[in-house]
Amino acid sequence: MNPKILLIYYSRSGNTRALAGKLIEKIGCDWVELRPEASFHRRVTGYLKAIGHSLLKRTPKLQNTGKKIASYELVIIGGPLWAGRIASPVRTFLRENRNEFKKVAFFVTQGGTSGGERVLRQMELDAGTSPVASLVVSERNLKGQPLKNAVQGFLDQLKDTLLKLKPPAIEPSKGGKPVAGGAKKITASSGHETRT
Length: 196
Ligand SMILES: Cc1cc2nc3c(=O)[nH]c(=O)nc-3n(C[C@H](O)[C@H](O)[C@H](O)COP(=O)(O)O)c2cc1C
Description:
CATH topology of the largest domain: Rossmann fold
Order of helices and strands: EHEHEEHEHEHEEEE
Radius of gyration: 19 Å
Distance between the termini: 19 Å
Mean pLDDT: 89
Bound molecules: flavin mononucleotide
């Protein structure tokens, strides 16, 4: 598990959760699901509340994620489209943490085939930083080869960032026991430790 990367998402009906699961499996990172204090899960009233939140650009209170966002080098944030906007719990998270992010990447699921790109721009404004990668997937592409292609496209965009954030290799120590991080080297010019 890469301790420098956090994936965080909101999902009302499971689509974004399924996509998040695939990304977590491929990237191997820490993750958490956003939980708003007020629920949107009821079929009719939850749906209507979600629409209202989108139209009024509301920011529902979230339960504490228990994560220190500033301690991650990359935060990957995902959510569904609601009435042409990002789901309100994701809006809350982006706005509350806009000064904490180092690097961000976004993923969005949508029922139809349009709107996602505009939502990515809203997310960027709310986060106060441009994403190093972004992905929009329509419901009909959330399975089979289209899903694999979508995930691979996102990973390709993230390639350079993931390489830089690669966790230290586990190498055997002199005594034969594995130690995390490999050999330590102190660079004379900076005094920083690097690992080789
Ligand atoms: C309240 C609400 C509003 C929605 N509005 C849109 C929309 O404007 N455009 C769209 O393509 N899909 C829309 N959808 C569909 C969802 O974006 C889509 O089903 C998404 O994958 C749901 O993700 P989830 O299962 O993770 O909650 C809406 C869904 C809900 C519940």
